[in-house]
Amino acid sequence: MSIFTPTNQIRLTNVAVVRMKKAGKRFEIACYKNKVMSWRSGAEKDLDEVLQTHTVFVNVSKGQVAKRDDLSSAFGTEDLTEACTQILAKGELQVSDRERQSQLEHMFRDIATIVAEKCVNPETKRPYTVILIERAMKDIHFSVKANKSTKQQALEVIKQLQQSIQIQRAHMRLRFVLPARDGKRLKEKLRPLIKTVENEDFTEQLEMLMVFPVLQVCLIDPGCFRDIDELIRCETKGKGTLEVLSLKDVEEGDEKLE
Amino acid sequence: MGHTSLEKIIALQKKTSCIRNLCILAHVDHGKTTLADSLVASNGIISSRLAGKLRYLDSREDEQIRGITMKSSAISLHYTTGGNEYLINLIDSPGHVDFSSEVSTAVRLCDGAIIVVDAVEGVCPQTQVVLRQAWLENIRPVLVINKIDRLIVELKLTSQEAFTHLQKILEQVNAVTGSLFTSKVLEERAEKDAEAQSSCTENSSADQVYDWSAGLEETDDSDLYFSPDRGNVVFASAIDGWGFRIHQFAEMYSQKMGIRSSVLLKTLWGDFYLNAKAQKIMKGAQSKGKKPLFVQLVLDNIWSMYDAVVTRRDKEKVEKMVTSLGLKVMSRDLRHSDPKVLLSAICSQWLPVSQAVLSMVCEKLPCPAEISAERVEKLMSVGARRFDSLPEKTQELKKESPAVQLPLTQEEISQRRELARQRHAERQAANQSAESPRSADAGGTSTPAGPAGSAVTGKNLTYALCAQTEALSVKAAVEEESKEHFVAFARVYSGIIRKGQKVFVLGPKYNPSLALRLPEGCSVADVLPSIPHMACCTVDRLYLLMGRELEDLDEVPSGNVLGIGGMEEFILKSATISTSPACPPFTPLSFEATPIVRVAVEPKHPSEMPKLVRGMRLLNQADPCAEVLIQETGEHVLVTAGEVHLQRCLDDLRERFAKIEISVSEPIIPFRETVIRPPKMDMVNEDLGKQQKVAVIHQVKEEQMKIPEGVQVDSTGLVTLTTSNKMATVGVRAIPLPEEVTRLLEDNVELIRTMEQFSLFAWEDKTLDINQKILENIQDFKVKLESNLQGHKWRGAVEHIWAFGPRRFGPNILLNNIEGYRRPSVWQCLEREKETERAEIRDFDNSIVSGFQLATLSGPMCEEPLMGVCFSVETWDMKISVPQAQQDSVDEDSQPSEPNNDDQSERSDMHETSSNRSRSRAEAAGGSVDCYGPFSGQLIAAMKDTCRYAFQAKPQRLMAAMYTCEIMATAEVLGRMYAVLSKREGRVLQEEMKEGTDMFIIKAVLPVAESFGFADEIRKRTSGLASPQLVFSHWEVIGSDPFWVPTTEEEYLHFGEKADSANQALKYRNAVRRRKGLYVEEKLVEHAEKQRTLSKNK
To answer: Where, per UniProt, does this protein localize (chain A) (predicted)?
Structure first.
């Protein structure tokens, strides 16, 4: 074993540097690893647990402290702590691997939760559990993109999952009342958007009046909702109404397997 | 097969009086299977050398590995004694608590039971349980005190000490039986007293007092107890292969000593000694310090033999003993290095255990024909109960009663007839006198049925057959095809079952009165209309159960235990098979253990879901005590009786039923979110308000973070929010609902659903017919709601209910408190007749409701549904035609008239054809689509957010699901049980002693979140003496605030700045959020300085 000899290199092993450019100057502060993100999210409230020292540097690794004049011109204050908090809040930093990992993990969970909420097993009309979805997502090697919203990614992953397991967006149950005049024409347009029609009612009970309601209860894919909504609004000029009976059509209650 | 041929067994099966159906029951590890081994060995099926080591009846691999029995298995044995040949259907049952359902099944199929007790351990919890089960099923028990060798070899007791020890054990067993007996007598008395009181009030109380005191003495209980001189106790060591009853010794010595064997028999067990001089047997051995007879004549011999063979290995002495006993021991055994081999070689010839046990069984246990009347009545009592409970149906059931008696053997029928008469007589007295000829009829019709039943044997036709099958057991032996085969474990109570016969399979809920509406005389072959819980099928195969093997049979006469194949599609867990549809299903099994351990099961590979579901179905069928269900969350939950049982179920699932990799996890625990009234006290029970706030800084900071810009919150909790296109503003306040109201809403879900449907139809000018009864119920519900919602702030609230949520029928209310907006109330189904002036509905009314539904479906704390929250909408302003920026200034107090004008033109009255309608419509359509998407969507989102903020403006609480937990425990383990309960946040509601026993019944509530592993822990801590039962009961608000931080000085002192002591609600909330992948406020690293500082390149 070699004897430890001091080198002229100082390694900042446990330091996370937060940088910020302001008023044409570069400022840096020295923080503890894995702490900056929790400060930003509000979980960590003790500043001393985040900052190694209440000093603003120009270069942390060289140990060059920022000049007082530069500070006051950039931050409008000479208080170092105040300047540090500003840099902490807005500066850029290299996210540490643990922080990144936990962030991605959270997003992964979140995506799985969204998928589990939106989808059902088409055979049983029951949702899948989050753990199962997570496992399926891992099976298809889904990787989380940190800069895209979880909901967007969830919608993408549903399409990919459909190739490996039996999964389907839970249908929305809608009911529309159409004036009979437009009804026939509209129905043809709606047909491709609708999955199943549960209940159709052509009863023209109010014949003396001008409006003959056509009732339809049907299941649709939630992705088509906007199109249908648009269609009905425009085509009937606001006379047709659309009502969401249930956002997702799933089996309710517990079922005993027999 | 051994030396008993199949033909022999078939011949014996026909002689009912020579059949003994019995099961072996005991605490775990008391030697049931070993005993069964020696019995099996006596038939030559296995070598007697291997008896006790092979555990022949433990046919499963995991049974052999773990060394405990998990599934009951049956075997038919042949035994000859005194010229009589017997067929013994032996069922070996598991002793572990988790498998007590198997014991219930075994007990049901048998007429007698061998209770095995370990001579060292004595009466254990499970011994008590099996004694109780045997008692409840009314079967006769005999006792085997096993492992006496341990007293000699391990404990090194002297024969004298062993005798007192054995006496004690016997006393213990008898005490258990005695307590069962007294509790039954007391129960009967209580019932009788109740009856007496209700029927004749004139009977003075003096009478009853007399009755009560006489209760215990009147009833004779002497034949219940175990006593060696009555011949129902065997002393044995199954592992060494010996066992005896004192009869054997009595006979032996009566010749030697010239004392009558009957005298010896009476004195051999007890406080007697032999006076050698007088050649007399004297009483009082203990007081005189003499050796009791039992020690002198019996135990000493055994002790000296063990001494010679095992301890001292004295060859000469052994040889002397062997010759004096007149035995022949092979020289190979004599030379064997292990003394146990020699010992068992000697003992199995001298006092063979199978001989002792089987002769006792044949003597003391009843044959199937002698089933006690009580037991028959109990079996059929499903019908009887109906008889009592549904007097208006007696007309139908009277017809049925002759049929009810059909499925019994001839011998029983005489008893049955009497019973039926008695019952009818009682009922006549109570009801109408017109029934009396009928009852005679009942007796009369059953008489011909009897001979028919017995004639069957000769004439080759079955008239009535009834077998009860329980617990389909799976036999690996038939597993030639890849498919699993189920074999139903059944017993024929009456008639003959034949291969290829068509039978009715009656489920446990089958109601014979339905079948009786069919034309009379229809047979099984006819095509029948489907009747619930009844199926018709053909008996595919019949098996004789021979432990690991099955033998094909063509027919099985009554009184036998058998296996039936090919029923898997018809029988779920248990069923009654009959050729007559009038037969009532037999009473369901009484399980000592109810399933309580819940786990969620999932396939390792999500694509294997269908396989898992199929496997779970099979498992459910195979195991009477496992429950399988799919929850609303999509979880597949497996409920088992205990951890060992769970393990077995999972192994079965993995290896036999599903054949896939599965993973097991804690089931998801549901929570609810609610708001409460602001608390008056702080966490250290100090009055709030007077105190100084200290650490308020953090809280203020949080508060500001929570609520973004554009939301205005006033001090009373009214939250106002404007849609993103600035066209509509809603103001909502959240109010906690009283507890009673929440409960009322929960209970009346169906009514609310009906009301919802009605208003949906009404909206389209159609009417839904609701029958009068439901209308009354709704009215009732409304009145109750009104009575519960009293006080100033709830004035008129019931009339103003806008909607219920989530899903339109949940326990949350949306109130319409908007001035100048009258919409049809949810109660309109009640006011149909009145037809008051048509209340108008605003446009986008539906969006508000949708927003409310969404908000109640997932709350802000951890996205769990809300419960018991009332959202009162106080303002709702629309500016459709004038999209202006200054809309922000509209606060909750302004009630401008201009939106009202708008609304009038906006109302969605379909009949109205005003000229300006189309104009505003067009405007609405034009304005409805802008850069923020359709307006209805925006309003939904706005409403949802408003509700959430309104919710957050109030003190929020989590609600936990609670189990009620009923625990039976003996007095000595109460303390430890309470410790377990309090560790898991349980609360004891009441505790009372069960009359006539030393058992306590404790009722407690326990959060579902804490219940995982509860059953196991409580069993472990109380050594199995307390057994809990968990049933979901209600939702309960968790007292602690999940967002709580110390604010007052007192709290600050008490809890410190970080409030480190565990906050239950916060713990639950974070667990749920973490599971859902929501943001959890927690630090990645608690202490910055305490991280590892090693860098990668150093």
So the answer is: Cytoplasm, Cytoskeleton, Spindle; Nucleus, Nucleolus; Nucleus, Nucleoplasm
